[in-house]
Amino acid sequence: MFKSPASRQFLIGIKDGLPFHIVLWPFAAIFGAIATQAGLNIVEVMGFSVLVIAGSAQLAALQLMTENAPTVIVIATALAVNLRMGMYSASITPHIGKSSLLTRAFAAYMLYDQPYALSTIKFEKEPDLSVSEKLGYFFGVAIPLGIGWYALTFTGAVLGEKIPTDLGVDFAVPITFLAVVSPMLKTLAHLAAALTSVVLVLALSFMPFGSGLLVAAAVALVVGAQVEIWMEHRKAAS
């Protein structure tokens, strides 16, 4: 058991993903508790976590739902928060895109911040890994974290008001994002898009139902793309 190269990479993925459990477990439990207190039943809470499996988007959508925001705003905000998943998919496809359709479908479902970040760093450092080894590592990170997210969401939903939701772990989301995103800011275009989004989110915080986030995301994408085009033109001209 665990003697194949892919299995060994799976174990390495489990080990590398362990630090993220420290943040994920209380975050998931508090989400489950907040969702229950907001009026969702356990089936709805678990459906939310299993189908979306994206804590930041889930919290954003839940907050808007409790504020009776229009459904289109709730959906658009959740999609805006998760726009990065499309870029993750395009980035990781060259590494695992030759696997079977079923495997790719499962990988697409498990593609969220932590496994993407750790996998891309791993694949850059060890470019000679086979597709099966890359998949082993990716799933080694993703599956335990996913199981932890489901389990702690369920625990929080069951315990409900017994779990205090003011434990001060609201810092967990931005810290996790900083840990995940900072190694990826490698070019001027990345930095420009990140800075634009931060400035606009703060500047447009007055907009109703968090719609400033949608504007910030759209403008940041345009800025990043334009800087990338400018850099390519400058490189070609030199």
Protein architecture, described:
- With 238 residues, this protein is mainly α.
- The chain folds into two domains: 5-183, no CATH class; 185-238, no CATH class.
- The protein has helices spanning 5-37, 42-52, 55-66, 71-81, 84-96, 101-109, 113-125, 131-159, 172-181, 188-203, 212-237.
- Helix 2 (42-52) packs antiparallel against helix 8 (131-159).
- The longest helix has 33 residues, at 5-37.
- It is flat.
- The model has no long low-confidence stretch (mean pLDDT 84).
Radius of gyration: 19 Å
Low-confidence stretches: none
Count of alpha and pi helical runs: 11
Describe the largest sheet: none
Mean pLDDT across residues = 84
How helical, in percent, are the residues?
over 70%
Q: How would you spell out the order of helices and strands?
A: HHHHHHHHHHH
Shape: flat
User: How many β strands by DSSP?
Assistant: 0
Oligomer: single chain
Subcellular location: Cell membrane
Organism: Celeribacter baekdonensis B30
Main location: membrane
Protein name: AzlC family protein
Q: Which key features would you list for this structure?
A:
11 helices, mainly alpha, 2 domains, 238 residues
Topology (SSEs and partners):
Layout: H1 5-37, H2 42-52, H3 55-66, H4 71-81, H5 84-96, H6 101-109, H7 113-125, H8 131-159, H9 172-181, H10 188-203, H11 212-237
Transmembrane segments: 20-40, 137-160, 167-185, 191-224
Organism: Celeribacter baekdonensis B30
Membrane topology: Multi-pass membrane protein
